[in-house]
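Quarterly update from the structural biology core.
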Amino acid sequence: QFTDYEDRFQYYLAAALVLLLLELLIADRKASWTHKFDFFKTEKKNEN
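Predicted structure, tokenized:
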């Protein structure tokens, strides 16, 4: 016996996947120039 379920969340799932894909693309593009900045001010210590 097959029960026909209501299709409710396909639009939300599609929107979430699109937003996730956009976030990955934006994060990849941002990473190419953020390596120039040292936000956490890490200093290299000389061990002498």
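Helices lie at 10-34.
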